[in-house]
């Protein structure tokens, strides 16, 4: 008699069919907004969990692989069904996500990367960024997002002191103070660069007076 601990002693689970995958898709969409590609990835993970369980239960590896491969077009069809139902809309997702990310201080480059990773087409990404703040040009949107980041990191006009704003030589300042000022500015520029902002935007933010920065923040809030 085969021991209960031996491979193959458990009955391999049935693979998820279209109905099961459809229920999984609806359950996910009831909790999260997503894109067509991201939904396909969610369903693919559902199939991958079945694969692991089936192999653990002793199913033949070739049979499991063949079934998983046959389910790939089923996954795509289920995701396409969700698009047809209106439950998945890449354009609406991109617009909403771009607005949220910009208002959290993410650069246009970072927003593009975020949306691209979720399978949003380039044309849709570009359109979402154009419409992210009504009445703002692309440069104004980028500047506003950079100011949000500056406020979070207490840089430039939000630093509470002038050390990160550009200044020329001042005989009243000591050499140590000037060197620290330059070092702090370079660190701040590095923060912006790592976040995807261009040097021109970073310099403009760091040189901005608090009053002007406040006006930009108010404009961003009023257009939200």
Automatic annotation (TrEMBL):
Domain of life: Bacteria
Predominant cellular place of this UniProt entry's protein: cytoplasm
Keyword Cytoplasm in record: yes
Keywords: Cytoplasm
Domain RecX second three-helical: 89-129
InterPro entries: RecX_HTH_2nd
Single GO cellular component term: cytoplasm
The UniProt record lists the keyword Cytoplasm: yes
Localization (cell): Cytoplasm
Pfam families: RecX_HTH2
Recorded family membership: Belongs to the RecX family.
Protein name (Swiss-Prot/TrEMBL): Regulatory protein RecX
Species: Acetobacter indonesiensis
